[in-house]
Design a protein that fits this description.
InterPro entries: Glyas_Bleomycin-R_OHBP_Dase, Glyas_Fos-R_dOase_dom, VOC_core. Pfam families: Glyoxalase. This is VOC family protein. It is a single chain. The chain contains two helices and eight strands. It is an alpha/beta fold and 115 residues long. It has one domain: 2,3-Dihydroxybiphenyl 1,2-Dioxygenase, domain 1 (Roll), CATH 3.10.180.10.
Length: 115
């Protein structure tokens, strides 16, 4: 797609204030725009995350997965655990993955490639 300019992932959430607190306050990502409780944009490295209120048409949780590649896996886990985030960690040969969820049970993960 030669005309592609930006990409984003939209996350359906139940409470805008709590979602922003999770992504900005706990994960340390940047809130770049907020339009009341209708929409917000969170900037992660090379990824824009759009937060949308869930509707009756959208099932909460298990409808997407956002991955964050990290280089200091263990210290990142400790930092986020101190913010109240729990992980399920797996080692799969050349990659370590730490699965967790946001407040609406959307699936997220940290990943570190083993060289």
């Amino acid at each position: 797609m030669k005309n592609l300019k930006t990409c984003r992932i939209n996350v359906m959430i139940s409470n805008m204030d709590k979602a922003i607190d999770f992504y900005q306050g706990k994960l340390g990502l940047e809130l770049i725009n907020r339009y009341g409780d209708h929409y917000a944009e969170i900037q992660a490295p090379d990824l824009l995350i759009g937060l949308h209120p869930a509707s009756e048409k959208v099932v909460k949780g298990n409808n997407l997965s956002i991955g964050f590649g990290v280089v200091k896996f263990d210290s990142t886990i400790r930092e986020l655990e101190a913010n109240g985030i729990s992980f399920q960690i797996e080692q799969d040969g050349w990659i370590r993955i730490a699965y967790f969820t946001d407040l609406d049970n959307n699936h997220l993960f940290l990943a570190e490639r083993k060289d």
